[in-house]
Amino acid sequence: MSNGIPQIEPGLTGLDGHEAARRLARDGANELADSRSREGWRLLREVLVEPMFLLLLAAGGIYLLLGDVREAVMLLGFVVLIIVITILQQYRTAKVLSKLRDLSSPRALVLRDGAVRRIPGRELVVGDTVLLAEGDRVPADGKLLTCNELAIDESLLTGESRPVRKQLGQAERELTHAWAGTLVVQGQGWASVTATGARSELGRIGALVDDIKPPSSPLQQETQRLVQRIALVALVLSLLAIALYGLSRGNWLGALLAGITLAMSLLPQELPVIMTVLLALGARRIARHGVLTRRLDAIESLGETTVLCVDKTGTLTQNRLSVRALATPDTLGWVNAGDPLPEELHTLLEYGVLASEIAPSDPLEQAFHAFADSALPQDRRHADWALGPEYELSPALPAMTHCWRAPAQDERILACKGAPEAVIELCRLPPEPAAAVMAQVARLAQDGLRVLAVARGRHADGEWPATQYGFDYEYLGLIGLADPLRPEVPDAVAACRQAGIRVVMITGDNPGTAAAIARQAGIPAGHIVTGSMLAGLDDAALRAEAARACVFARIQPQQKLRLIDALKTNGEVVAMTGDGVNDAPALRAAHIGIAMGQRGTDVAREAATLVLLEDNFSAIVTAMQLGRRIYANLQRAVIYTIAIHLPIIGLALTPLLFGMPLLLAPIHVMFLELVIDPACSLVFEAEPSAADLMQRPPRRQTSALLDVHALWSSLRQGLALLLVTVGVYAWTLQGMGSIEQARAAGFATLVLGNLGLLFATRPLGRPTRTLLWVSAITLTALGLAVLWPRLAQMFQMAQPSAQHWLWIGIATLLGLLAARWLGRSNQPAEVAG
């Protein structure tokens, strides 16, 4: 099978889908109990302790003391409405995050309905037959049915750091069982699930990490600092307002109410909500394109990425390997599936298959088996041979040997395959034949083929040697496999280069193959650094090569970490793809670790911040574009929030300073908050990317969400709206209307100016459907508050005259034009354009 799904070993059976569904309904999901069931109460508790909620309750109490029951009831109504809206909004965000957690949870390969399927680990049930492979977390407790060099790290449960080598037919239960949560560090095996979820050994210990809160990201910390500073300013100004009102007017209850109104207008409680909602909805938007976000703070770094390090196989290529060429020392033959294979090449393919797993999960070995099924006669498949010891490949020796016993000849047969350099070394070829082999390798690599060498040998009865160097091998030849480039890769690489992102290929393949694929993908391949070259470089020389080269070949997994560190030392923001156990350190070290969802191990997924569902390179580029879009919209939302709060603060403070009647009461501030919250989160999240977003260089890592330019732009926009609103209020108050009409005129100008500010902050172009809906609902609510007599009376307003509406419209238009001009002239690069 393809995509890393192994063939079914003989004798294994699995559940059918209907029985699995029945057991899942009976026993529940294979997961530990978590705190998500308590989220409703947690959200309610968080809302009840919000400063805005407490200020509303205080204002309602003051209205009751003043004998204004209607105002108090109106405020309490707003309290209930805000609680409902806030909880619904946060619950929606929590549901999005919960779905993302479920999608990025460990997967399992299970035998169902006679076929191997990849399912979420939570859907496993007792009786399932599940595959355990190197690099995976064991998804449930199970009894081993088969094991092939299987070793499991059980330190999570036992504290013992040494892996346990599993063996069938042993009396010790520890050797014949696997436990949920432990890590497969070597080999593979099939197990029958015996316990899931809370009934597993891990479940009995308990989910100790469930309530551990992850540390705040840099963006969260920046937002928290901003909110704390503004809250301190709000407290000081509110105390000054109370003193000013009380001393000048002698009404201390009214002074307290004015101070509460000012505090409510100052508190930017939307900022943490904006950040959480935009990042969560952005993560869901990215997930629609096949990229799961395991941590929301990864979105912060997407727009900063300057270097993207990618593997070749499965990322740039399709990971659909097929045998295309076989070469002996005397013959080079190009083949296709179904073509007859010359007899002189039978032995080469025969031993290539013998050096592979019987039921392989690796696409390369699957390609060997698939070609052999059509090209080799049955007597060359050796179904009756018994597999003995296996010598796995290692970073020091990238070759593997399988030892077989042939019953008919009563012989010990060796089959070896691996990197040509390693097999040449094991066969101890003299310099001249070795050079001829490497010339054939270069010829095959020019066509982008992945090349492996094959050797055979015999071993006399007696002790097996400790390493492969203890055998005598006979060199047989080379096998070249084609893995075509993904058709979307050249355009995606070009898009990265246009966006200022350097694409670097890091592969274990030989330099010739790497160079051929790099040229097809559009990656510069004029200078290639190999693993052996890298090993001889000191840190300074490696940093120089990391800045120069875009192709690294024959790289060992442990060298990836050193390369990532060199790029980071050069000041690059690094994203890296990986799939294996040995990739985990480098994935964790990179600013953005990207794990392969199809062929990636659980260890790689746990170390990464993003997971590709389809192992598709173009999805990475799309995620980077969406990351830039999310951050740009987040900046717009923050600029808008600061800008709209300035006129609200000014309208709460100006009447106190000039002895005018108060324009805003708590009820008016609450009306505005009901407009601002959805505008911040929903309107800006829905804004599309700027047309030239991927033509701009990456955002600097040191740039702040709200830098000096953005803050100045925001303050100027807010000041323009404040001057217009105060002007309309003062002009109406000075002789053209009653206090109630002046309040209505000023309030209507402020609300219309708020909508204008939404349009001024967003890019030019067709408004989104979300913006139009928010505008329509806001205008309807404003019309009811001003024109419906009963509601207008509650808001202490009276209907303005036609002349008032004319001036309101003119002032709002002027304010919109001024805000647009002031806001466009000096915005940060991320939102400009």
TrEMBL record:
<dbReference type="InterPro" id="IPR050510">
    <property type="entry name" value="Cation_transp_ATPase_P-type"/>
</dbReference>
<dbReference type="InterPro" id="IPR018303">
    <property type="entry name" value="ATPase_P-typ_P_site"/>
</dbReference>
<dbReference type="GO" id="GO:0006883">
    <property type="term" value="P:intracellular sodium ion homeostasis"/>
</dbReference>
<feature type="transmembrane region" description="Helical">
    <location>
        <begin position="226"/>
        <end position="247"/>
    </location>
</feature>
<comment type="similarity">
    <text>Belongs to the cation transport ATPase (P-type) (TC 3.A.3) family. Type IIA subfamily.</text>
</comment>
<feature type="transmembrane region" description="Helical">
    <location>
        <begin position="253"/>
        <end position="281"/>
    </location>
</feature>
<dbReference type="InterPro" id="IPR008250">
    <property type="entry name" value="ATPase_P-typ_transduc_dom_A_sf"/>
</dbReference>
<keyword id="KW-0187">Copper transport</keyword>
<feature type="transmembrane region" description="Helical">
    <location>
        <begin position="637"/>
        <end position="658"/>
    </location>
</feature>
<feature type="transmembrane region" description="Helical">
    <location>
        <begin position="771"/>
        <end position="792"/>
    </location>
</feature>
<keyword id="KW-0812">Transmembrane</keyword>
<dbReference type="GO" id="GO:0005524">
    <property type="term" value="F:ATP binding"/>
</dbReference>
<dbReference type="GO" id="GO:1990573">
    <property type="term" value="P:potassium ion import across plasma membrane"/>
</dbReference>
<dbReference type="Pfam" id="PF00122">
    <property type="entry name" value="E1-E2_ATPase"/>
</dbReference>
<dbReference type="GO" id="GO:0140581">
    <property type="term" value="F:P-type monovalent copper transporter activity"/>
</dbReference>
<feature type="transmembrane region" description="Helical">
    <location>
        <begin position="804"/>
        <end position="823"/>
    </location>
</feature>
<dbReference type="GO" id="GO:0005391">
    <property type="term" value="F:P-type sodium:potassium-exchanging transporter activity"/>
</dbReference>
<keyword id="KW-0813">Transport</keyword>
<keyword id="KW-1133">Transmembrane helix</keyword>
<protein>
    <recommendedName>
        <fullName>P-type Cu(+) transporter</fullName>
        <ecNumber>7.2.2.8</ecNumber>
    </recommendedName>
</protein>
<dbReference type="InterPro" id="IPR023299">
    <property type="entry name" value="ATPase_P-typ_cyto_dom_N"/>
</dbReference>
<dbReference type="GO" id="GO:0005886">
    <property type="term" value="C:plasma membrane"/>
</dbReference>
<feature type="transmembrane region" description="Helical">
    <location>
        <begin position="705"/>
        <end position="730"/>
    </location>
</feature>
<keyword id="KW-0479">Metal-binding</keyword>
<keyword id="KW-0186">Copper</keyword>
<dbReference type="GO" id="GO:0036376">
    <property type="term" value="P:sodium ion export across plasma membrane"/>
</dbReference>
<feature type="transmembrane region" description="Helical">
    <location>
        <begin position="47"/>
        <end position="66"/>
    </location>
</feature>
<dbReference type="GO" id="GO:0030007">
    <property type="term" value="P:intracellular potassium ion homeostasis"/>
</dbReference>
<dbReference type="InterPro" id="IPR036412">
    <property type="entry name" value="HAD-like_sf"/>
</dbReference>
<keyword id="KW-0406">Ion transport</keyword>
<dbReference type="GO" id="GO:0046872">
    <property type="term" value="F:metal ion binding"/>
</dbReference>
<feature type="transmembrane region" description="Helical">
    <location>
        <begin position="742"/>
        <end position="759"/>
    </location>
</feature>
<dbReference type="InterPro" id="IPR006068">
    <property type="entry name" value="ATPase_P-typ_cation-transptr_C"/>
</dbReference>
<dbReference type="InterPro" id="IPR001757">
    <property type="entry name" value="P_typ_ATPase"/>
</dbReference>
<dbReference type="GO" id="GO:0012505">
    <property type="term" value="C:endomembrane system"/>
</dbReference>
<dbReference type="InterPro" id="IPR059000">
    <property type="entry name" value="ATPase_P-type_domA"/>
</dbReference>
<keyword id="KW-0067">ATP-binding</keyword>
<dbReference type="InterPro" id="IPR004014">
    <property type="entry name" value="ATPase_P-typ_cation-transptr_N"/>
</dbReference>
<dbReference type="GO" id="GO:0016887">
    <property type="term" value="F:ATP hydrolysis activity"/>
</dbReference>
<dbReference type="GO" id="GO:1902600">
    <property type="term" value="P:proton transmembrane transport"/>
</dbReference>
<dbReference type="Pfam" id="PF00689">
    <property type="entry name" value="Cation_ATPase_C"/>
</dbReference>
<dbReference type="Pfam" id="PF00702">
    <property type="entry name" value="Hydrolase"/>
</dbReference>
